[in-house]
Please model this.
Amino acid sequence: FLMIPIIWLLALWVVIKKKFFGSNLKINTFWFDGLSPNCRAIKENATKWRALDIIYNYQPGKNNSFIGKVNDFWNNLLSVRATRNRLRLVKYYLEKEIQNFLSNYSEVRLISVASGSAQGVIEVMEKFKKKPIRGIFLDLDSTALEYSRMLAEKAYIKEKIIYVNKSVRELEEIGREFQPHIVEVVGFLMYRTKEKAIKLVERIYHILVPNGVLLISQDNHILEKPFLYYVVNWPLIYRSPKEFSEIIIREGFNPKHCKIIYEPLKMHGLAICRKII
Model:
């Protein structure tokens, strides 16, 4: 938390720079994307799967040079650590739900919506590669699907996944035929207005099989928000636990069968909702 005043001052400096020189600065600040290639890559890929891939797989302490220590400093931000916590949280509950369905069904089917690299899903599916499990990765970004295809091939589960390079608007058509037991939506709700977020949850409810589960994440309000918005160029829609709850139980899901769990830093929440008819 001692870093908060520093990053607020940097955000203020970038706001002033953008006011005089325009919003599309090549370098927002020397101390972030100017000095660190790692941070520059995150900024240039903000809102895309590649930025999350860099955050998920960063290894602190690997480079002891001055630049390496700068990278370590920025990758120790609360929001960055919380994002890696979210990955662990999603993997834990996804594995738990897959194991539950395998105990009661002859096959488990899952859909990852706006899947990105789908690293977490692939790492969990790898643990069940000898089990009857199938997945659909739905994403509008073909480069994300190509990368996830490569990860799946390395994990020897490529044949278990169908890659769909289409918009989320196609979800109903895909879901009606596939009939998923699990739908996973991580890192997408923060780009949807409240109305669109509610509609998405409603659409997912209708394609899930009875007793099916939705795993969906949402960012909580954080102190680093100005820094992420102005310095990292990463605009997000933040919601309190109450606001998040209102979205997931507005249509379909019974609040008795939904729970929201936050990672230790309380910045990312994961809702686990079961469709009970």
